[in-house]
Amino acid sequence: MEEIQERLKKLRQAMHKAGVYAYYIPTADFHHSEYVNDYFKVREFFSGFTGSAGYLLVTEKEAFLWTDGRYFIQAEKELEGSGIRLCKMDTEGYDSIEDTLKKMPKDAVLGFDGRTVSASLAKSFKKALPSGKLKYKEDLTEKIFLRPKLPQSVIENLPEDIAGESAVDKIGRLREHLKENWADAIFISRLDDIAWLLNIRGRDIPCNPVVLAYLYVDMEKTWLFTGDGKTDIAYHGALVRPYQEALRFMKSSSVKGRVLLDPGSVSVIFEKAIKKHAKPVHGKNPTEAFKAVKNPVEIRHLTDIFLKDSLALTRFIRQLTTQDKSFTEMSAADALEAERKKIREYREPSFPAIAAYGPNGAIIHYEPSHEHETTVERKGLFMVDSGGQYLGGTTDVTRTIVMGELTPEEKQAFTDTALGMLDILNAVFLKGTSGMNLDFLARRRFWNKGMDYKHGTGHGVGYMLNVHEGPQAIRMRKAEEELKPGMLVSDEPGLYREGRFGVRTENILLVEEAQRTGDGVFYRFKNLTWVPIDHKGMDLEKMSREELAMYEAYQKETARHLRPHLSPEEFAWLQEYAGIAAGEGE
Amino acid sequence: MEEIQERLKKLRQAMHKAGVYAYYIPTADFHHSEYVNDYFKVREFFSGFTGSAGYLLVTEKEAFLWTDGRYFIQAEKELEGSGIRLCKMDTEGYDSIEDTLKKMPKDAVLGFDGRTVSASLAKSFKKALPSGKLKYKEDLTEKIFLRPKLPQSVIENLPEDIAGESAVDKIGRLREHLKENWADAIFISRLDDIAWLLNIRGRDIPCNPVVLAYLYVDMEKTWLFTGDGKTDIAYHGALVRPYQEALRFMKSSSVKGRVLLDPGSVSVIFEKAIKKHAKPVHGKNPTEAFKAVKNPVEIRHLTDIFLKDSLALTRFIRQLTTQDKSFTEMSAADALEAERKKIREYREPSFPAIAAYGPNGAIIHYEPSHEHETTVERKGLFMVDSGGQYLGGTTDVTRTIVMGELTPEEKQAFTDTALGMLDILNAVFLKGTSGMNLDFLARRRFWNKGMDYKHGTGHGVGYMLNVHEGPQAIRMRKAEEELKPGMLVSDEPGLYREGRFGVRTENILLVEEAQRTGDGVFYRFKNLTWVPIDHKGMDLEKMSREELAMYEAYQKETARHLRPHLSPEEFAWLQEYAGIAAGEGE
After folding, report:
1. ipTM of predicted complex
2. What mean pLDDT do residues B537-558 have?
3. Closest listed residue to residue A452, CA positions, set B125, B80, B271, B523
4. Chain A residues within 8 A of B419 when measuring between CB atoms
5. B123 burial via Cβ count (<10 Å: 0-12, 13-18, 19+)
6. Rounded to an integer, what distance in angstroms lies between the CA atom of residue A368 and that of residue A352?
7. Residue ranges of E strands in A91-232
8. How many degrees, rounded to 5, is the angle at CA B459 between CA B457 and CA B460?
9. What is the pLDDT of residue B431?
10. Which pLDDT does position B91 carry in this prediction?
11. Cβ contact (<8 Å) for A480 and B477?
């Protein structure tokens, strides 16, 4: 902890010199990615807090760290003795950062590294601050936090029989969109959008196969700023320049006219650069909506990869529930990873696996570790949320496995979770429906009992890209994006009872057309995840006839999908595990 | 139809003279009211279309009328031979007005009466139009459409035992809100907001007990612009000025500082006036959210009035289904009105009653007339959607009455409608839930069959005010407003089959708290409408056990509420009509 205090002291000296009263350090990289490379871990360096979300504010005398409910316990421990005050987000009795900025002295200047703060966040800081004064051209941490080398992975070019659409065609669509919106060019800093557009993949962020880069596209040319700019891989006509040159380029007279940029993902310093010779036009990256709709080639690969991934998880469940061997959370996660590794197309996890036994399941973003080994016992619930990056798709799946005797409370939660998931899976909905319209379906059984799960029901999923992507989502609020054929969405209700247990069941669904009638076009979900739901967890007696039919249909359909790939012994086990009578699901 | 063509010809001459390429005529009055006084019926005059929603765009050579799904059939008929093209809103194959404006010639100027177009709509027109040129200071229809006299009804002052909160307290709350939002004053043009704030009611719009007025409130004074400004009724300290002086006043130096205005309900010409000496600040009228939450006094009166209104409708249904006498749509509507008139607190209808027999029921906002009398026969469905303005509340209720034999299609639609309504009524939901989250519940039985109803599921309801009010609603889209205890919402799914039948069932619900748990605060609906659902319409055999229980519970609860006010003969009839076994619902 003395180390942290020493670092903060040096930072305060730099702040003093620069005439900065408060300094803001987010978790974000320069691209506002959800997961970041070590190169960007400045917030961790100055606070000691290792969580994946949170931001630090250092003033002359104080320091504050904001983080969300997932990390309250961890942050309290990690901040101990640092002198940094933990500010719990969305919790009564704690100020937000805007509230804190509002209370600053009249002439207080707020500093930050302009590469790490989006144009829209900078605007809201300016609005909150009494002085309205921001200083962000300089990185005051530069001489204190010695960054590791900037990552520069070998770039992979996706062939068209994997990508389904050439980069040239994608760029053509992008330019069409620019024209329709009276823009002359676009600046993109979101890494998954760049990877999708150019059909390239990299390894610059663990679990996220992206390339650290900026992209500028005008009506004639495409500039890709990445690595040292020397790579000679074919980029479909893109001019390759060094990563570090992006800012200078965006200030140059090559950038002109009306330049579209997403203020939520483009850093303020780039917006300022663009203003030098051009007019920034705010709007979403059209690439986000483009890449959300999977093309037929992607869908074909996804269908295949999800079945293989389902088989891996199903075989892991068999191991776990039938072998005499004792597992820990970690060894179980390893055993599942070993099953995935048997698949030719497998590359790496799509996010750090959550393997949470018993009360650990109640910690929503729990990560098992070797330091605190937990044995998976022969009772209660074991939740495993994991996924893989494959050539041909990104997977994400959660099953909660019944390890033995359950309490009535556990069984009820398990049943309501599974039925909520299946209700979404079986929904038929009119064109124009958004995830806000469907969310209630997954929650209503809990709400009727005064219970709720504190996370969204579903998120978009990338194709050989980030496991979380937009714009669609299934949530109570802020999910107005229409669900369109070709979109993927996760379907993952759950229930968490602190100190007792957690349960979550997650499938990935594909939106497809159901029918067209005089009343409109109707959509439904095509299921991609075929993993049985543990029969012993279902409270069959409390289910209605319709619920029972829905559950049994899913189990039988799952058996039918898996059977061609299972040995007779495996299938016999599956029938029992899934609660299917002999002769069914064949 | 020649009349319409003649009027359009004169308008085009005026347009030509004013250098206007296209002229826009909305349904709106100067206050963006849903229903308007005859003084404002310019769109109807120039198009012949009598529906309550829609807008006309006249260019040199063409004319377009946009309206929504409720009016497609009616508009087609009414526009026949006028040369005006019907543009179906939200329908594939039809351009929106913005699309149409985008395709206009490069220098085309759009004209309209600046009193009838809100600041935000004017902005979106400007954006869509290639030239960006608007001309709105002049009313080009002035010499063609000779307006009737501006209405000026006697103003009624609501006593506090009816209003539940004094105008002084309401204005105090409003000023509090202004302070919190750094505003110095507010300009309000919404008539129901003004009526609510000052606890005044009028008769300037049929069915909507409002006073034609503008309001300006700063930190010290309140100005009410209405009539000739000479009325001497007590306005809780408001200075009364003539209606016609509002625009001049808003341009004066009395209007200064930061002035809050709702760009969706304040006309562009007023925003411009305010800019003369003050800075307009855009935001919703806080009064909208204030008045949506009914206070305990209002709720007490509402509960009583809704029961009385339910009794009137129930008695009307008994007349209709048991008397030998033959009814027409009009005579039935009159008989219902006669039942309402027996209630001491009754004043006038809250909207023109929809009494639609057989295929007429498929016309969503059908209005019966003496010109086209339709006899209510002893078969099929008869839909009655009506409501009243009472001292103590505004009601709105729809029942579809089974007149005899039904087709299987009619019975299925009737059943799905009733169950959708009851599903919403029985929902339990977390604080933060919006109408977008609940809408699916009412539609899912239809969507599963490829069917849909082309209107929202629910709207807010005023208290002795407009039958439709915001901000809350139950809809697929654009209904993100949180449902809060004290809010009223209608619950009215339906199904409409052109040329065959229509069915709709509507109750009014009050949001109230259900329970508080560790997972949050949960709400539910308290039912206000106690009218039985025709038992003969329900397809009991196709209903699940849970659906059956839900339906029967509502019927019995209804009988229990009505019984103290019914004669033994009436109650015996009710039991049969509602399908309640003797001895139940007592």
Report:
1. 0.93
2. 97
3. B523
4. none
5. middle
6. 9
7. 110-112, 134-135, 156-157, 185-188, 200-201, 213-218, 222-226
8. 150
9. 97
10. 87
11. yes
Residue B153: how many other CB atoms lie within 10 Å:
16
Quick one: tokens of B363? Answer: 């016309």
Angstrom distances, CA of residue B432 to CA of A417, A435, A440, B429, B520:
21, 16, 12, 8, 10
For an interface test with B, the pick among A409, A425, A436 (most B C-beta atoms closer than 10 Å) comes out as: A436
The residue count of chain B comes to 586
Measured CA to CA, the distance from residue A272 to residue A259 in angstroms comes to 12
Cα separation, A447 vs A454, whole angstroms = 12
B318 compared with B366, residue with greater pLDDT = B318
| Count of H-run helices and E-run strands, chain A | 17, 30
Of all residues in chain B, the one with the smallest CA distance to A181 is B128
Q: Are A492 and A505 in contact (CB under 8 A)?
A: yes
Tokens of B379: 């078969």
E strands, A27-130, in order: 55-59, 63-67, 85-88, 110-112
Minimal C-alpha gap between A430 and chain B (Å) = 7
Q: Nearest CB to B437: which of A433, A476, A545?
A: A476
Tell me how far apart the alpha carbons of residues A329 and A383 are, in angstroms, rounded to a whole number.
Answer: 10
Which residue has tokens 């609906």? B525
In order along chain A (586 residues), what is the average pLDDT of each group of 10 residues? Answer: 91 97 96 92 96 94 92 90 93 91 95 97 95 95 93 89 96 96 96 96 94 96 90 72 96 97 97 97 96 98 98 98 94 97 98 95 83 91 98 98 97 98 98 98 98 96 97 96 98 96 98 97 98 98 97 98 97 96 69
Alpha-carbon torsion, ordered B5, B6, B8, B9, to 10 deg: 120
- Give the dihedral of Cα atoms A261, A262, A264, A269; nearest 10 deg: -10
Q: How far apart are the CA of B443 and the nearest CA of chain A, in angstroms?
A: 9
3-state secondary structure of A555: helix
Per DSSP, A100 falls in state H
The tokens for A127 are: 């609005």
B376 with B332: CB under 8 angstroms?
Answer: yes
3-state secondary structure of B437: helix
| Residues written for chain A | 586
Q: Which residues of B touch A (CB under 8 A)?
A: 427-430, 432-434, 436-441, 443-444, 446-448, 450-452, 454, 476-477, 480, 514-515, 517, 519-520, 522, 544-546
pTM given for the model = 0.93
- Number of CB atoms found within 10 A of residue A78's CB: 21
In chain A, residues with a C-beta closer than 8 Å to the C-beta of B428 are 444, 447-448
Residue B480: what pLDDT?
95
Q: Rg (Cα) of chain A, in Å, rounded?
A: 25
pLDDT confidence band for B69 (50 / 70 / 90)? confident
Quickly list DSSP for A359-427.
Answer: GGGGSTT----STT--EE-SBSEEEEEE-EEETTEE--EEEEEE-SB--HHHHHHHHHHHHHHHHHHT-
| Residue B241 near residue B214, CB atoms below 8 Å | no
CB within 8 A of B518, min separation 6: which ones?
Answer: none
Residue A220, classed as helix, strand or coil, is coil
Q: Are A199 and A297 in contact (CB under 8 A)?
A: no
With beta carbons less than 8 A apart as the criterion, state whether B375 and B357 touch.
yes
- Which amino acid makes up residue A345? E
Overall average pLDDT of the B404-423 stretch = 98
> Which residues on A lie below 8 Å from B450 (Cβ)?
514-515, 517, 519, 522
**pLDDT tens digits along B379-407:** 999 999 999 999 999 999 999 999 999 99
Residue B460: strand pairing partners: B469
